[in-house]
Amino acid sequence: MAAVDPQEQAQGSRDEIMRAAMRLFADRGFHETSMSEVAREARVSKALIFWHFKTKEDLFMAVLNRLLEPYFIDFGEETELDERAQILKLVEMYLLFVRDHANSVRFFLAQLLHDEHRGENLGSQVLQLYTGYRNLLTSLLAQAQQKGSCAHGYTAESAAAFLLSALNGFLIDFLFMRDSALNPENALTMVREWLFGESGQGSRADGQAVA
Amino acid sequence: MAAVDPQEQAQGSRDEIMRAAMRLFADRGFHETSMSEVAREARVSKALIFWHFKTKEDLFMAVLNRLLEPYFIDFGEETELDERAQILKLVEMYLLFVRDHANSVRFFLAQLLHDEHRGENLGSQVLQLYTGYRNLLTSLLAQAQQKGSCAHGYTAESAAAFLLSALNGFLIDFLFMRDSALNPENALTMVREWLFGESGQGSRADGQAVA
DNA sequence: TCTCGTGCTAACCACTCGGTCAATAGGTTG
DNA sequence: CAACCTATTGACCGAGTGGTTAGCACGAGA
User: Fold this and answer.
1) CA A108 to CA A96: how far, in whole Å?
2) In a designed cystine with B31, which of A22, A31, A124, B165 is the match (CB 3.0 to 4.6 A)?
3) Does residue A165 carry a pLDDT above 80?
């Protein structure tokens, strides 16, 4: 019988530890999660965790970086679409991402609010993502305005800022009032209507899906 | 020399404990704050805290309720104003409140995100405030729409929801990016422009105040 | 075969935690 | 004065914390 490659097995238990830590850190937080709990959840000895990760902080950082990975997606500029479609696509990506990663979004939000010292690093990464997204949005809005397809009284910068604020508002609405009528589709419809004055095809704008 | 009334002194130390706990809980959180720290900060013995408050949870709840007090302001319906002015007033109150109570807002947000079991009680109170505010906004918007002073394609409900989301967005923008250009005045200007198509008197909509 | 590094564990360590308790000082009441 | 009550304290407790250490199993290289 082929014995298991010990190196592979080590990687396996390391992974198991990180997965357990991810779960626990994510829904309990840093201080409220003990290494013994992680060990129990991962079905390893506590000492093994300290063999793989030097300190609790170390483990936490590893988990944090792992959770952060899916956030670095590139908003591939699909140039075959016009600006309007690209903007809506961007908004939709934001909304769907939040919906699909609600847990980690919640986790990072709590982290940013809470632990300043650990937040330093995280904060700058999130800020980078945030401003990148906003800049993209701003330039697209500027282009759309130039072409006249989205004429408003305010500048592209302020429109982007306002739009992003509204999106963040949807985010916290979604995080806190899970049963709210503000699902991504309705939110997108409302944004479309606000930006371009369209009423959407067959969907209503009052936050209620047509039965 | 008149001896201090012991009852008064007791109330004093109780107050001192609560103030210390308020500070510590607010910027460290529940689990990261120890009773010994509270005792040190309040310059009392730890045992005294447990004489005044049965458990740590008890103390926390007392602090929480105290912090929550300023949130229960009544949006006095100033009927001498027209709907438009009332709406703007409402929005302004929201924005100014967030600015002036940033710390406790941050604290409650973290609390809601984090500790579900303790959040139950808090959550319902916040939800109550939230829906009250939204209902008021909705009815005012409906009135304004009836009078034609605010004509949009969407219903009052969805407009209120969208507006509130935008406000929440401003909130988190304000909490996280302290140096952002989105101060309450600019935000209010943008909302006014969005709702009523006004450009404001002398203020610009691009988030920069006129020098 | 002996050693050596890797992966892993039980038992342990010093320390902090929330919480308790006996004791105290001082005021009030009998 | 004695009994009692309120406000307060230092010393203490068991439980649990992050982290360490001695040692074990085992495969690879000498």
Assistant:
1) 17
2) A31
3) yes
Which range has the worst mean pLDDT, A27-36, B21-30, B130-139, B144-153? B144-153
| Strands, E assignment, B3-133 | none
Minimal-distance CA residue of chain B relative to A193: B153
What is the CATH classification number for the domain harbouring A166? 1.10.357.10
Cβ density class A37-49: b for 16+ within 10 Å, e for less: ebbebbebeeebb
A interface test, pick of B120, B145, B167, B176 with most A CB neighbours within 10 Å: B176
C-alpha span between A165 and B167 (Å, rounded): 7
Question: What is the model's pLDDT at position A179?
Answer: 66
Q: Are residues A91 and A153 in the same domain?
A: yes
Closest CB to A193 among B29, B154, B206: B154
Kindly state whether B120 is in contact with chain A, defined as any CB-CB distance less than 8 angstroms.
no
Distance from CA of B12 to the nearest CA of A (A): 30
Kindly state the tokens that stand for A70: 């899916």
Mean pLDDT along residues B86-94: 92
Do B89 and B179 fall within a single domain? yes
CA nearest neighbour of B161 among A71, A115, A11, A183: A183
Rounded to a whole number of angstroms, the distance from the CA of A197 to the nearest CA of chain B is 8
CATH code at position A40: 1.10.10.60
CB contact under 8 A, B206 and A110: no
Average pLDDT of chain A, as a whole number: 83
Q: DSSP label at B204? A: -
CA angle in degrees (0–180, nearest 5) for B172-B177-B182: 75
Q: Is residue B80 located within the same domain as residue B54?
A: no
Map tokens 């919640």 to a residue. Answer: A106
